[in-house]
TrEMBL record:
<dbReference type="InterPro" id="IPR052703">
    <property type="entry name" value="Aromatic_CoA_ox/epox"/>
</dbReference>
<feature type="region of interest" description="Disordered">
    <location>
        <begin position="1"/>
        <end position="21"/>
    </location>
</feature>
<dbReference type="InterPro" id="IPR011881">
    <property type="entry name" value="PaaA"/>
</dbReference>
<dbReference type="Pfam" id="PF05138">
    <property type="entry name" value="PaaA_PaaC"/>
</dbReference>
<dbReference type="GO" id="GO:0097266">
    <property type="term" value="F:phenylacetyl-CoA 1,2-epoxidase activity"/>
</dbReference>
<dbReference type="GO" id="GO:0010124">
    <property type="term" value="P:phenylacetate catabolic process"/>
</dbReference>
<dbReference type="GO" id="GO:0005829">
    <property type="term" value="C:cytosol"/>
</dbReference>
<dbReference type="InterPro" id="IPR012347">
    <property type="entry name" value="Ferritin-like"/>
</dbReference>
<dbReference type="InterPro" id="IPR007814">
    <property type="entry name" value="PaaA_PaaC"/>
</dbReference>
<protein>
    <submittedName>
        <fullName>Phenylacetate-CoA oxygenase subunit PaaA</fullName>
    </submittedName>
</protein>
<dbReference type="InterPro" id="IPR009078">
    <property type="entry name" value="Ferritin-like_SF"/>
</dbReference>
Length: 336
């Protein structure tokens, strides 16, 4: 049996050819994944694979748009026109990332309205990192360096994810995340080399964002519910702990170059492992924030719901415009 992927052909059985049985379809799917081929929207895929992707892509898309809030908080107070322009471009990029990811999720048959409804009603989550507040201007730098940095570490392997539309969206997103990470680093460097007060502000922001950034990789491997299956499907390529270690190893020398310290007395180079050892993560805090009791959970979701309601006129106007150009008019429009 041939895969019809990529050729734009339907998967439905042709009359007289007999319906392919699920086991045969599954064998084709498994072989494609094993051969590192991409699964495309029209390919047959197991329901659980589709559900896992929708859940992951939705959570990713939600994180992109909720993540706009803590940084947008500083747009009006950016210390210079240059900083303001950079920050506005970054926040706008995050909206674009949300757009690519909602569109990629739509290829699996799940509409954006449905996903946003699940976000607004709390049935789908977003990354818990965005439930922490941005207290000073230096937080914009710490988010760029650490939060976007952790996102890149997580997302670069997703460029090779088995699902084609997700993998392709990630290639573009990762390029933009690299710019975000660099601007955060550069901002912190300027503060670190500035006055004593600026240096202290940068250090304080790093102290507050370091541990939550490590939590972004998710629970330890032995407690991660979805990891093994996602690895088998090649949605995920590396485990949570592997990625977390990679991130720590990248950040330690960068912190030294910044002239800042990381708030972990147990952080030491382990010659034998060839990696940095680090102290225990407060998983109780992680679970608490995930359960909705973080410092800004209510604020974030309230603002998101309000933005959605206030944007309803834009959606209506866009739909009317699309109808007009498709030649199909409602009665009211035809009479006007
Ligand atoms: Fe992003
Ligand atoms: Fe970003």
């Amino acid at each position: 049996m041939q895969r019809t992927s990529g050729a734009g052909q339907d998967q439905a059985p042709r009359p007289g050819s007999g319906a392919p049985d699920t086991a045969a379809l599954e064998a084709v799917f498994d072989a494609a994944v094993a051969a590192d081929e991409r699964i495309e929207p029209r390919d047959w895929m197991p329901d659980a694979y589709r559900r896992t992707l929708v859940r992951q892509m939705a959570q990713h898309a939600h994180s992109e748009i909720i993540g706009m809030q803590p940084e947008a908080n500083w747009i009006t107070r950016a210390p210079s026109l240059r900083r303001k322009a950079i920050l506005m471009a970054k926040v706008q990029d995050e909206a674009g990332h949300g757009l690519y990811l909602y569109s990629a999720a739509e290829t699996l048959g799940t509409g954006r309205d449905e996903l946003l409804d699940k976000l607004h009603s709390g049935r789908q989550k977003y990354s818990s990192i965005f439930n922490y507040p941005t207290l000073t201007w230096a937080d914009v730098g710490a988010i760029g360096w650490l939060v976007d940095g952790a996102a890149i570490t997580n997302q670069v392997p997703l460029c090779r994810c088995s699902y084609g539309p997700y993998a392709r969206a990630m290639i573009r997103i990762c390029k933009e995340e690299s710019f975000h990470q660099r601007q955060g680093y550069e901002l912190l460097l300027a503060l670190s080399r500035g006055t004593e007060a600026q240096h202290a502000m940068a250090q304080d922001a790093v102290n507050r964002w370091w541990w939550p950034s490590l939590m972004m990789f998710g629970p330890p491997d032995d407690e991660s519910a979805h990891s093994a299956q996602s690895m088998a499907w090649k949605i995920k390529r590396h485990s949570n702990d592997e990625l977390r270690q990679r991130f720590v190893d990248i950040c330690v020398p960068q912190a030294e170059s910044l002239g800042l310290t990381l708030p972990d007395p147990e952080l030491t180079w382990n010659e034998e492992r060839g990696h940095y050892d680090f102290g225990p993560i407060d998983w109780a805090e992680f679970r608490q924030v995930l359960a909705g009791q973080g410092p800004c959970n209510d604020q974030r979701i309230t603002q998101r719901r309000r933005a959605h309601e206030e944007g309803s006129w834009v959606r209506e106007a866009a739909a009317a415009h699309a109808r007009k150009h498709s030649g199909v008019r409602t009665e009211g429009e035809a009479a006007a």
